[in-house]
Amino acid sequence: MEKFRFLTSGESHGKCLTAIIEGLPAGVIIDTDFINSELKRRQQGYGRGDRMKIESDTVEITSGVRFGKSLGSPVCLVIKNKDFENWQKIMSVAPEDYTDEKSFSVFRPGHADYPGAVKYGQKDLRNILERSSARKTAIEVAVGAVAQLFLKQLGITGSSEVTQIGSACCPEKFHEEIDMNKEKGDTVGGKFIVIYKNVPVGLGSHVHWDRGIDGRLAQAIMSIPAVKVVEIGTNPLGLCGSEYHDEFDIIDDKVCRKTNHAGGIEGGMTNGEDVIISGVMKPIPTMLKPLDSVDINTKQKAQAHYERSDVCAVESCAVVAQARTACILANEILLKYGADNMEELTQRFS
Ligand code: EPS
């Protein structure tokens, strides 16, 4: 059974986003300012749409924390959607408020619209858009920030950054690439990297296919909306064994490596080196430039639906990936070291 678990709920234009975290030990110092600073990081980034001007995401903690420390009980986090004010009628739960304002029926190629509508039997694609929107990553970042606070208490720290936007690999060119696509009514994706330092040896396992930490991390990163590729460490394609594998060395009686192409993971287990994960985000499918599509109701050819969106959200995606990685690492630490409170855990960990 997993140890650090959470569920989230909330629609993009609904009242709020909510998460309940289960399994956080007692005694984690909950620094709300840190959670909010991670939420702010997610909201920033060149190429974001006008929604980010409406929202100023801040977390409200409604359970599981007392006087700045976790209690070991479920931690409930809430982020209000400020935009809900403008969507109250459209997103109402009451049947008498029914309206088809903001309904749409033309699929956006690349979005969840088509498979979601078929799977859930929906004629109004808003019923799919609302939950498939990347808006829900706000609450995931809040959960990940709690996981990061837990990890920090053990000396484990994370960071993330963008490494490529479209075809531009150097940061000076990123804005140019985004501006160029914006002018064309297009969108652009890119690549990001997440690094965690001071991760102990032996998180994950080689003994079963579903216990490898690389597989768990890959699932966590791949399921961020729009991510299509996950790499751990250096992409080995085209490298021979002697170029790729990380030779051992011994310095001051400590086993270490000359390189870290494996991204800190061998045999499904962390090996004590920095954990390094990259992901590639596809261009966002909500585009001003219309793509060929079909209307679900008329079954006629039509141009894809457009509504307010981002031109590029790779910077935000990097923050989300850092958060999700923290959740996986927190779970693995609790699986390996157990413990119901931080005092117990710190002793076992050291
Ligand atoms: C997002 C909020 C959304 C979008 C984006 C991510 O806000 P709205 O739909 O009100 O403009 O900006 O979602 C998508 C790109 C998508 O395809 O759903 C956010 O908070 O990150």
Word description of this protein:
The protein has about 350 residues and is an alpha+beta fold. The protein has a single domain, classed as Chorismate synthase AroC (Chorismate synthase, AroC fold), CATH 3.60.150. It has helices spanning about 30-45, 50-55, 115-120, 125-130, 135-150, 175-185, 215-220, 240-245, 315-335, 340-350, and strands spanning about 5-10, 15-20, 60-65, 65, 70, 75-80, 155-165, 190-195, 225-230, 250, 255, 265, 270, 275-280, 290-295, 300-305. The strands form 6 sheets. The chain has a 4-stranded antiparallel β-sheet, with helices on one face. A 4-stranded antiparallel β-sheet has the order 7-8-14-9. α1 runs antiparallel to α9. The model has no long low-confidence stretch (mean pLDDT about 95). Ligand EPS binds near residues 83, 133, 137 and 310.
Summarize this entry quickly:
The protein is of the alpha+beta class and 350 residues long. 29% of the residues lie in helices and 21% in strands.
Observed structural traits:
350 residues, alpha+beta, Chorismate synthase, AroC fold, 4-stranded antiparallel β-sheet, globular
Q: Structural class, please?
A: alpha+beta
Largest sheet: 4 strands, antiparallel
Please report the first level of CATH classification, the CATH class. Answer: Alpha Beta
Number of helices: 10
Radius of gyration computed on alpha carbons: 22 Å
The parts where pLDDT drops under 50 for at least 5 residues are none
Q: If you average the pLDDT, what whole number results?
A: 97
Q: Roughly how many Å apart are the termini?
A: 24 Å
Which topology does CATH recognise?
Chorismate synthase, AroC fold
Please count the beta strands (DSSP E, at least 2 residues each).
16
The SSE string, one letter per element, is EEHHEEEEHHHEHEHEHEEEEEEEHH
Shape: globular
- Full CATH superfamily name: Chorismate synthase AroC
Query: In what order do the strands lie side by side in the largest sheet?
Result: 1-2-6-3
Bound ligands, named by name, code or SMILES: ligand EPS
Q: Residue share in helices? A: 25-40%
Whole-number tally of structural domains: 1
Second CATH tier, the architecture = 4-Layer Sandwich
- What portion of the residues fall into strands of 2 or more residues? 15-25%
